[in-house]
Amino acid sequence: MMKTAIAIRHVHFEDLGLLGDSLSGAGYRIEYREAGIDRLQAQELAAADLLVVLGGPIGVYDHTVYPFLADEIAAVQARLDGGKPTLGICLGAQIMAHALGKAVYPSGVKELGWAPVTLTEAGRDSVLAGLEGLAVLHWHGDTFDLPDGARHLAATGEVANQAFALGAFALGLQFHLEAKQEELERWYIGHAAELAATPGIDVPTLRRQAARHAPPLAVAARRIFADWLAALPG
User: Residue by residue, what is the 3-state secondary structure of 141-194?
Assistant: First the structure.
């Protein structure tokens, strides 16, 4: 019987990307739920074999402006409390941390562009080991406190909590491994206002960085996703 992966998408161009390829290769049927449009029902999301919570340009603390966040957080909390496979990327990782009772807040810096992360000892002993020496795509201004019982996997000099894991069933990534180089033009268009407001970064620079760093990262990302999916419980 085919497994089901439901992905909560907050903006259309931040999709599963490379992770979608890995899910299909691992025998998952993929369904998207559009945040703010589709009803995020905890029971339905709990029934999926895997829940992926994707990125987006809003903050977890924006729940009064975006009321759907309350249902999304509750659904993620139910999955995590039940030990059900869950993967969060950027905003998704922040939602996971918040669902686990931790604060999410502006980091005071804007990490936007390609740069490496430093793996912790636990990170070097995890599926993220292949990131050693590689630059990843950062696109965030918020951070979170590390959930209780989580393994801290990666950091940067300015933002300590870049990745965490709970057992073998949950993985939170502050950075983007899933973005396909050929689809980043959609990001540059969709995030044009943010890019214009961020000193020291521009689209030509991001294109040059992606040309250099995206191909080797894609190789590592596919292996990371495949290994993580293969190790999921159940």
Answer: EEEECCCCCCEEEEECCCCCCCEEEECCCEEEECCECCCCHHHHHHHHHHCHHH
